[in-house]
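Regression report. Comparing outputs from two consecutive submissions.

Submission 1:
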Amino acid sequence: MYEPQEDSFLLQEQVKRFAHGIVLDMGTGSGIQAVEAAKSRKVVRVYAVDVDRGIIRHCKEKIVNKKIKFLTSNLFSAFEVDQRFKGIKFDTIVFNAPYLPDDEGIEDAALYGGKQGHELITLFLNKSRRFIKPTTDILLVFSSATGKETLDNWLIKNHYSFKETAKEHIFFEDIFVYLIKKD
């Protein structure tokens, strides 16, 4: 499990500011973002998903909150196949995505987002289209190692508006949080 680090805490502050309505915490890991979102009076429900069944089991055992429902899901797969979620649209989606470029010899799904680092992020954004409203806020954390210019260009080309809501320099990289909306 990805233990909360600087990027998690930076994103947590933005969740505190922006989470509302029905929230999806994509790749919940430790559950830190789901718990933060559930604290808000503006949030009615949180779906916390992760591809790792062990993580979901751990979160169900350690986190008791009536607003949070933990589900095993590979990105949006649980919402695509389960009839209980037919037509669901999220008001806020939070994603502390694996965002580092693949490093030969080290395989850690919690860190690496593809060959260049942004591939999982763009796949996520493409798949999210079925589950967002025109007003949905997507909070995404990523690193300068991900290729900020490449990601910015992809967002523009694919008709997303975005603004940087937080930035922190850590060791050899900058960590960014974007608030993204579909145009």
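Submission 2:
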Amino acid sequence: MTQLAARLNPRTTLIIGLILLAALSRLLPHPPNFTPIEAIGLFAGAYLADRRLALIVPLVAMAISDVVLGLHSGMWVIYGLIAINVALGFKLGPNPTGARIAGYGLFAATLFFVVSNLFVWASGGGLGYTRDLSGLVACYVAALPFFQWTLLGMAVYSTLMFGGMALLRRGQARLST
């Protein structure tokens, strides 16, 4: 129990709370693909010192919201991409610059677009894409309007989560001086 209590210090509790809030925001009305999925992984990986928690917390948060929203056959792909984003967050580190957050965010959102739509095409998804290069291209072209929302979601949620943490740190530094 002491080990768990050490992990759940006020900073860790705050970070977990931000991740849970972001995941629960998926339950609010939003444009398609305007979600916190990619930002959650980056944020957890960057700020949760315990790497196991960094991986578990966003996956559990997503699972909670998925139970409400509905389960689907591509969940393993989405959860795998969240895990990759957590690993990217490890590389990003706890003191990222805005440019690094933007770069990693763009990479994560693009990877999400490429891999999730490759899965849609490969699984058939009942959408009628042919199993050839023209079907794959058609799948990606059809998904392009959603990609803008993915990018915007990454930008907004990264700004809220990373920016919120930066503001909290500044406020804390001012209080301690």
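Expected: both submissions complete independently.
Actual: both completed, but the second showed a warning that disappeared on reload.
Relevant detail on submission 2: The radius of gyration is 17 Å.
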